Amino acid sequence: MPKKIRILYSISINQSGRKASLWLPAPFDTDYQKLVSLDYEGDYSKAGIFKENMYNTPILYAEWEEGEIRKIKVKIEAEIKERVTEWSEVKEGRNIPEDIKMFLMPTLHIPVDGIVKKYTNKITRGKAGVVEKVKAIYDWIVENTYREPKIKGCGLGDVKSILLSGNFCGKCVDIGSIFVALARASGIPAREVFGIRVDKSKISPSLGKTGDITTAQHCKAEFYVAGYGWIPVDPADVRKIILEEDLPLKDARVREVREYLFGNWEDNWLAFNYARDFTLTPPQNKTPLNYFMYPYCEVDGSPLDYFEPKTFSYEISS
Predict the structure, then answer these.
(1) Is the pTM of this model over 0.90?
(2) How far apart are CA 40 and CA 62, in angstroms?
(3) How does pLDDT run across 61-73, given as a tens digit for each residue?
(4) Could you give the dihedral angle defined by the CA atoms of residues 306, 54, 237 and 82, in that order, rounded to the nearest 10 degrees?
(5) In whole angstroms, what is the distance from residue 288 CA to residue 284 CA?
(6) Cβ proximity of 279 and 108 under 8 Å
(7) Which residues are within 8 A (CB) of 255 and not within 5 positions of it... i.e. 6 or more apart?
(8) Cα separation of 55 and 259, whole Å?
(9) Which residues, in sequence order, are CB contacts of 129 under 8 Å at separation 6+?
């Protein structure tokens, strides 16, 4: 049965300036979640729901022409359910649909040549088929990356810089982006999915969040099997459990979580979009935007730091 969740954004933009513009990521409808309602109120001069063209990203946009403090409250209700892959049903086809091929392409932060191609060739050597290659990539990431809690927000996901450094550390966007880049370089469609934790986890307290979820943003990933569809993975949360619970890689608990998160997601996370290195709608002044799972705001064309909610002045509750 789907689980109904409710989240509330309370945003106050108190930086001075003639014009303030806010873009807020909104949940999309998929086979594992459904947006039930999205309501908003505030002292904005105009507001509306838009969709960005490249990734079909749903966006709530609000604008203020004047005023010292600008406010908006957004209430979202959605239904979410666990994603479970029945591996016996996964039959690999050959033809990738045209609308999926965009998830083979490089972006500013997701290159597919050079050092990325070098790593993916090494990791997938001798592997046959999409699932076998992706499993090799997933295992390599779990075994060779680590979570670095000092990194701001969810990280930048600059894959080339991470691989060139030889220090394979980061947070969820960094680790998820490495997965996506290596898969795409193997000729396998893959994408990050940006969202937020909205409920407790049955796996570990570190993988869930309720109440104040202002800093609970989390990036997962998917890969595509022609003839079947998208399959979820989350190597970043395997590394999060290893860090938060101080467990060795070969611990039985890690093995269990590692196996589950290759093909499954819990029902405690709300997805927003797949958008990467893109332009918001209406267009923001600073382009392109790296990714979109935090509120994004510009005052007189200058962006506020969405990694700093207290300075930006926003709160999210579940």
Answers:
(1) yes
(2) 10
(3) 999 997 778 999 9
(4) 120
(5) 8
(6) no
(7) none
(8) 30
(9) 92
